[in-house]
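Need fresh eyes. Consider my entry:
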Amino acid sequence: MYPIRSIIVSTALSALLLAGNASAASRAQVDDATAKLAAAAPPMKPVALEKLYAGRTWKWKDGGGFFSADRNQFSAWTRKGAAWSYAEGRWYAAKGGKLCLQALWSSKMERGGAVTCFLHREKDGVIYQKPSLGGSWYVFRHNPVQEGDEALKLVKGDRVSKEAAQLKAIRR
């Protein structure tokens, strides 16, 4: 069984995978250019982040996270092979374009709290995102939206609670 921290890191990395770059530019050149564009964009306001995430599920490769509009409750699950975990907590938007998930992650054998935050900037309808601790800026949503945009993985409704409840029942 994976330690809970490994599962959390794996989940976060899975959520941040980007589509491959079809241009001839190197990955470093693309990252540098995106970082410059993000630096020139103002941070998103909390109300804009709430509008973007509330009532939606962020679908990940191995699970997902639901941002409830009701009291900003957050629930998530992830499963990779026999290893699984689920989370219960809350989410909040803050100044500086910061969106944070504060949750208690549980697996069959372990339990641990985690706070994960992402920074958001927007200019001319293009949203840039990066983990608040480390990571690189990337285009979360182009304008107009393009196939492969991470924002397309934000889908309306709760597509998490049923699976999270099943995993919670297994843990008991």
Q: What stands out?
A: The first strand starts at residue 56 and ends at 60. The chain has one domain: 4-16+27-171. Strands lie at 56-60, 63-67, 73-80, 83-94, 98-106, 111-123, 126-131, 138-141, 154-156. DSSP finds four helices and nine strands in the chain.
